[in-house]
Each structure stands twice: as structure tokens, then as C-alpha cells.
Description:
Blueprint: H1 2-7, H2 10-31, H3 70-106, H4 108-122, H5 126-136, H6 141-151, H7 154-167, H8 171-178, H9 183-191, H10 196-219, H11 231-239, H12 250-277
Helix pairs in contact: 2-3, 2-12, 3-4, 3-6, 3-7, 3-10, 3-11, 3-12, 5-6, 7-10, 8-9, 10-11, 10-12, 11-12
Amino acid sequence: MAWRRFRSNRAALGGVVVLAVVAAACFVTAATTEAGAGVSKAEEAAVGQPHPWSPSRSHPFGTDTNGRDLLRRTLAGGAISLVVGLAAAAVSVVIGTFYGAIAGQAGGATDRWMMRVVDTLYGLPYILLVILLLVYAQQKFWVLFVAIGAVSWLTMGRIVRGQVLRLRQEEYVTAARALGAGPGRILVRHLLPNLVGPIIVCATLTVPAAILQESFLSFLGLGVSAPQASWGTLASDAVDAVNPVVNCWWLLFFPCLFLGLTLLCMNFVGDGLRDAFDPKTEK
Length: 283
């Protein structure tokens, strides 16, 4: 039923197709790119032109200030942005799911104290925490998605906790408790399987947020470091090349176009999954 509802949503299906094409192009390009620098091994000897070139037939996206093909760099950078977004979302989903499920199942004082921790973390400047973690860990690549995921699980935790509080009142949970099932067994065998829909929907909406945060941090110089590139670093590098004297608009336009298109499609997919898993949907 969920698949039929999702299939009837043309915007969501279109988002899946576009995301599949973009992801395939990004990862294939990244696999044939030297050191993430946006230059193919065959073109490595041709690098070093002193100024960027506007889009042409040989370079559809133009070249950057070092003469590197911007199309290849944009696709290779997209692979890094997608990996960081997916990994950060995975970290966020794991932490938020288990934290919210334990709080909802425990109830009482344990639930209240765990939710006070969440409220306290909500009050902290979350982007500042990410920056502090990155600076403390010397901006290592794997710390980037761990830092983003470790501070973006709060919404997931609240959603899961609310769903557990609702489901624990259902008759099948009461029956399992009457048959002698313990809290852990009820949580694993009965509650978590019924939370798959909300978790998938929330995870789908977490991925674009993580990609946007990575791009913002890379734009500030705190994310992906050279020679690797991401959509955020490409946009950051383009800022100096877009000015009234030398207007290299393509350096900023194409990375931001791919970033915006990816985020838009992911939001379409998330909305489609939300409607597909909603039992109140009539389609």
C-alpha cells in the first residue's frame, strides 16, 4: 500500500530519478578523479592554465582558476557532499532512534530526565558545537559527518519518543506485556518494527539538512579540505572570482545549481514517503 501511494506521487518519483542520475554521475566521476581534485588522470598533464575559461563545447561548465574542468570538479565534489550527508543522517538516525525509543519505553522519571537533556541541547547554539568539534578534532574528514550527526539527532529522538508513547498503549503491546514479555523484547519485537515508516521519513528529511550543513561549514573553510572538494568548497572558491572586475559566474552557478537541485529532490522524496506511510492517506 505504501509503495502504491508513493508511486502515485509524480513529484516524489521524479525526485528519485533525478537523485539516482546525479548520484551515479557523482560517484562514477569521483572514482575516476585523481585525489578528489576534479582532474581526470588523463587530463592531469593539461592542468595549470593561469585563468578560468567560460563554458564551451569542450568544457560545458567552464574551468576554474587553475584551468580544471568545472563539470568534473562539481560531480566529484557532489560525491563527497552526498557521502557526508548520508553518513551524518545515519549517525543521527541511530542515536535519535535508540535515545527516543528508550525514553518512551522507560517512561516516568527516566523519560523526564532524558527529555530535559534534549531540551537543554536544543537551547545550545548547535552550529557552534559542530565547529568546536571540528576544530578540536583538527577538521578530519570522518569527524565532519560524526559532528553533524551527533548534534542533529534531537528532532529524531523526539519523534521516536512520541511514537513509542503512542504505540505502547496499543492492544498488541498490552497483550505482549500480559504474556510476560519484558520491556526490551517489547521494544525490539513490537515497537521498533512499527516505527520504520516515521524513521525512514525523518531520515530522508535529515539527509538534505546534513548536506546543507556540510556545504555551509565547507563554505566557511571548516569542512572538506583541499585537494578534496565539495559543493560548499566550490561555492566558497567561486566567491573571490565573482566580482565587478572579473565576473566568472559559472564558478558559483553550477555547484549551487547541483546543490539546490539535490536538496529539492530530496525534499520531494521525503514528502512522498511521509504521505506513503501515512495510514490516513486515501490514495
